[in-house]
Every structure is written in structure tokens, then in C-alpha cells.
Amino acid sequence: MHTRLNFAAAAPDGIKAMRTLETYVQTCGLEKSLIELVKTRASQINQCAFCIEMHTRDARAAGESEARLYLLSAWRESSLYTERERAALAWTEALTWLAETGAPDEDYEAMSAAFSDEEQVNLTLLIGAINVWNRLAVGFRAQHPTSA
């Protein structure tokens, strides 16, 4: 697989805007571990190797356990995730698969029970941002580092 386009070089102002949003979601008060779980799960759904590699690496550096990263795609079957994380992951899946799910009331209700109004918006911005990054990376075939 070869990179199709260096999207950051082609549209620097657009990427600057995305980086501003990224800075916001990184500093909005959501837990770093939650941010990386959400980013990794959306990236798994979108099959974005570049982002999966990046966010699992970042999660490990921030102290995330290997077991929680390995089990993330099957989080519903694991007891390793808190209720707050489970609500965020369900909301991540609902919004990432939006055309299929329609953002079900059940997922919204679980998320709204675990997050304040401001956190709900911040979580949704986070999910939207990682989905845009995934589309850029997959669409333009960004290549992840190959040294393991």
C-alpha cells in the first residue's frame, strides 16, 4: 500500500483547524485513558491501521494495560472497563456506525447518565474528531511506522 497524498501538506489550514480541535479534546477534562480508548475503538471500526498504531502506542505510554487494549474490540464481553468507559465506548460505536445505528436512545441514556452535559458534548467532539482523522488517514493511505 502506498500513500496517495500528503494531506497535511496539501491543505495546511484545514489540518491546522483539525489540530486546534484535537488540542481542545485533549485538554477538555476527559480522562486521558478514556480519550485513547475511544480513539482506538473508533479506529478499529474504521480499520485505520495508522491511527490504531498511534493510539495504542499513546495509551501504553500513558499507562494503559495490554489486556485492556487487546480486549477493546470485545469490550462488551469484558469486565475490565468501568461503567463510564462502557458508556463512552457504546456512544463511540453508535456515532461511528451512525448510518446503521441512528444513535439509539439506549446508548444516549447510558452516556448521559455517566457524563455531565459538557462532557457529553466533549465526548461527541472527540468521536467526531477521530472519525475525521480516520477518514483522512484511510482515504489518503497514511502509513504507520513499521518498526515495532
Concise structural overview:
With 148 residues, this protein is mostly helical.
Written description of the protein model:
There is one protein chain. The protein has about 150 residues and is mainly α. The chain contains nine helices and no strands. It has helices spanning about 5-10, 10-25, 30-45, 50-60, 65-70, 85-95, 100, 105-115, 115-140. Helix 2 runs antiparallel to helix 9 and helix 3 packs antiparallel against helix 4.
Q: Can you lay out the helices and strands and say which pair or pack?
A:
Blueprint: H1 7-10, H2 12-27, H3 32-45, H4 49-61, H5 66-70, H6 83-96, H7 98-101, H8 105-114, H9 117-139
Helix pairs in contact: 2-9, 3-4, 3-6, 3-9, 6-8, 6-9
Low-pLDDT runs of 5+ residues are: none
Helicity range of the residues? 55-70%
Distance between the termini: 18 Å
Structural class, please?
mainly alpha
**Number of E strands:** 0
Q: How would you sum up the major sheet?
A: none
What is the rounded Rg? Answer: 15 Å
Shape from CA axes?
Answer: globular
Helix run count: 9
User: How much beta, percentage-wise?
Assistant: under 5%
Write the element-wise H/E pattern from the N-terminal end onward. HHHHHHHHH
Mean pLDDT: 96
